Amino acid sequence: MESKQIIDILSQFSTTNTYKKVFINGAWGIGKSYYTNEYIKQNSSNIVYISLFGKNSFEMIENSIAKELMNKLNKVDKFKTKAEDFIKKLEGSISFNGFSLSTPNYNSKTLIEKFSTLLEEQDLIIIFDDLERKSANVLMEDIMGMVEELSLFEKMKIVVIGDENNINEEDLNKWNKFKEKLIEKEYKIIRFSYEAIESLVITRLNKYIRKKTLEDFVSNFLLKHKTSNLRTINKGINLFIEIVNNYLYEEYNEDVYLCIAKNCMAVAIEYTEELYKPNEEDKNSKDSTKSWMYAVDSDISSRIVSHYFRAMFMNNKESSIVDYVIKIYLSEITKSLIDDFNNVLKNYISIKEEKNIFYLSQESITNRIKKLYSDIRKDKYIFSSVEEFIDDIYNLVTWNKEFKLKLNDEIILKKFNSIMFLNYYDSSKELYENKIDRFDLKQRESSQLKELIDIYNNEVEEKYLTDKINNIADKYKKKDFDRKYLEWLKWRFIQEDKEKAIKYFIEKARENNYFIPDLSIEINEQDWSWTHYIWYLFYEYLNDNYKKELNDYAESIKDINLISRYRINGLQEYRPLIQKNKEE
Question: Is 579 within a domain?
Fold first, then answer.
């Protein structure tokens, strides 16, 4: 059966007396709860809906039923007077006739009987959803006993909804043992109804994107990837709303919102369901195509670009924000990331895309590539985002090679680095934010592009190191003793290639009194914190030779005055850079 047939099942169950206890069985996310709630929206008067998920005790389930039943009584005038006789015996806060009542516990069996008596003139269906998600503190036999007990009342019918494949082994054994005696009819939901996707997407995204556009999005994008889980679709929608509500600096047009939606859905689907995860057997396949595709698909970002945007051999603007969306999905969020993300949306995605170079004639491609090369060489090249720049360089090196245009590779490399350092590099950002850590798919397709990026990334490491340490020296000379400028060194001194950083740090330290402020004069807490941190770095991360250098310098300034001696002695006692023998 398809999931949308749940509406027919519940409708027939409500109007006929053939069965009193039925079980709707289907996989997680197949639409059971969705279509059940769609039915309840139109037929709520005789429905009591209870989700077992989040109820950590059997008493919580009983109280939930009691409150739902009381809500029914609130809406039936002739029952209100009778209900007042025992309402004070209910546990928890209940709204009745406009008042909020906090009441003690009440025997559940008696409660059920009294409710049944009060509602005996009205048909009632109680739905227990999320059977497989019930708490481990709630016994399966207690749930089954309640179903049986409730079904004894003439006006009550029971629907149980769950996924047998996800019930734990112990509970499943109990369920299977008594299910045949308890359940009169089982409905197996084995197919997903894609109308649910369209309804969900349109309902939640119509504020940002027109209905017709969303219908096309569902049929031309979502349905192609055969996801059969509404929860996955909901994840994608929630990710979209998180981004729109929290990370966009301005309102964008519908095309930009649609681009964000596509990326959010692709990321949610692939991370959740791994539809295109490569087969491990292809990793070392003799078939070069299979082994190459394994290499591409082993990286989830490249996999999404390839399968969801079909952009393996051509540039696609929409896929240029995949890595940003992935980082937001994984909560790896920084201000720099969000700044770059908005820059791409505003200056790249929102600009109307000219015809993709892949589809042009050889003559047109050649003319476009030669003009691009000329603009870059003459410093006339203008771009709106690093995504656009990488796309252009990818095209430049790819078609230069394919058409043997003989454009100068050294000039391309030189200008590539020049443009990146001028427009992208910023020493105030983290090192990883300055590197190019995206565009994996394009690098796999083009060894020339990979070489350009590798060279740039290596130069970034060198420049970042010198800029950071030069900045420390500059701050020291300006007497700006804020230890935040030093804290980066702690991380740098534990890296495998730490010797390069240590060597340059020591060079600058020797030129600047080992970065120790003048301790012979009046200082403040910030100055002293800086001093302590410099001392800590030498003590914790540098070798004995460097420790001795700092200690010797400290000894040399002790005699300036008594306060400098006192402060230096304090540092040496707290963290002795020179370990003295016991005899000394």
Answer: no
